[in-house]
């Protein structure tokens, strides 16, 4: 059996190399072998959140797996057939629920025969991963491509306690449409959330006030919800959504112990302001997250990001390992072009 060989230490060298490989392995039916998994990290090898990405991918596809244990830096994954159904995965830490769901959502949609429901427990608002609200944004983009599904937040999970829960419904689809976002159009409105868990609601109100001070300048409808989210731990976050005529940008910042909510709000606002000033059509993190689904679309796609992350560059190289006749180019103006059926 021929295995696609992946060096898990190249480029960004993190867990996304593994998650992208799992997704594309199931969709294409191509087995892979990965070595040096997270070799450059302080705690190399598989951590609980990566292990559960592997196990969830293996469960939905009846895969044959070797090396799926904590600390392992080598993995063999041979996918089988995807089975639709009801699934529950408990990461057991504050590991990202969003990243696990993104790993298996596309395979369940493209290879499943009927609706699936997925429950994931762990971290919903944790560093270095999409918050639940940004996950909703990712799904909104996928719906533009023809995917069908929904996500809901049952309980928020913050670092280090975790304990959050999200649920998703995934409908089967057989064709993915490309997206071309060349011009974003005018800014239409700004929506935000200032939220706390286990903290006084006044903290969230202070965050909202600071958002208004910084973003009222744009003269568009500005709606910021103050929320107290259910959670077994303490946490806070600011989420902002900039709605343009042709696209949407998503930014969030998590609260930290000792950081005033005004500072959290400022960081989130400055990120959105930076996007507005950049002329980009998709925010930098979303652009990274769209590489895999758009690489599976029936046609050519393009968008422009404010700046290109090493994370995105690494993701592009992994995609090329699994898919033939595809060209993904990143231009000097940060325009990303995905071309299919390239000889």
Can you describe what's shown?
The protein has 343 residues and is an alpha+beta fold. It has helices spanning 15-28, 48-61, 97-111, 132-144, 201-215, 261-278, 284-295, 310-322; strands at residues 4-7, 32-35, 64-66, 75-78, 86-90, 116-122, 148-155, 164-171, 187-197, 222-228, 235-244, 248-254, 301-304, 326-330, 335-340. Among the domains are: 83-174, UDP-n-acetylglucosamine1-carboxyvinyl-transferase, Chain (Alpha-beta prism), CATH 3.65.10.20; 187-277, Dihydrodipicolinate Reductase, domain 2, CATH 3.30.360. The strands form 4 sheets. Strands 1-2-4-3 form a 4-stranded mixed beta sheet, with helices on one face. A hairpin with an 8-residue loop joins β3 (64-66) and β4 (75-78). α5 (201-215) runs parallel beside α6 (261-278). The chain is globular and about 60 Å long.
């Amino acid at each position: 059996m021929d295995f696609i060989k992946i060096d898990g230490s190249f480029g960004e060298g993190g867990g996304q190399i593994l998650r992208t490989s799992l997704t594309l392995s199931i969709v294409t039916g191509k087995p892979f072998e990965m070595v040096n998994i997270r070799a450059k990290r302080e705690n190399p090898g598989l951590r609980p959140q990566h292990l559960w990405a592997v196990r969830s991918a293996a469960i939905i596809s009846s895969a044959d797996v070797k090396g799926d244990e904590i600390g392992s830096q080598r993995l063999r994954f041979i996918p089988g057939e995807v089975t639709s159904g009801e699934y529950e995965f408990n990461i057991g830490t504050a590991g990202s629920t969003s990243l696990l769901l993104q790993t298996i959502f596309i395979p369940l949609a493209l290879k499943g025969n009927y609706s699936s429901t997925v429950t994931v427990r762990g971290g919903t608002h944790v560093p270095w991963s999409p918050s639940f609200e940004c996950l909703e944004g990712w799904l909104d983009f996928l719906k533009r491509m023809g995917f069908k599904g929904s996500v809901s937040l049952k309980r928020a999970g913050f670092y280090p306690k975790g304990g959050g829960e999200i649920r998703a419904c995934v409908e089967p689809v057989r064709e993915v449409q490309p997206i071309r976002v060349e011009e974003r159009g005018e800014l239409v409105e700004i929506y935000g959330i200032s939220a706390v868990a286990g903290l006084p609601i006044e903290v969230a109100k202070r965050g909202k006030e600071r958002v208004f001070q910084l973003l009222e300048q744009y003269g568009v409808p500005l709606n910021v919800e103050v929320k107290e989210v259910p959670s077994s731990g303490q946490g806070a976050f600011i989420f902002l959504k900039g709605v343009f005529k042709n696209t949407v940008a998503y930014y969030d910042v998590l609260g930290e112990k000792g950081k005033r909510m005004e500072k959290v709000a400022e960081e989130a606002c400055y990120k959105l302001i930076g996007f507005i000033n950049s002329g980009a059509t998709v925010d930098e993190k979303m652009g990274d997250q769209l590489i895999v689904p758009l690489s599976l679309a029936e046609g050519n796609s393009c968008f422009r990001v404010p700046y290109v992350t090493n994370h995105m560059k690494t993701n592009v190289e992994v995609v090329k390992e699994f898919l033939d006749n595809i060209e993904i180019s990143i231009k000097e103006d940060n325009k990303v072009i995905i071309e299919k059926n390239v000889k």
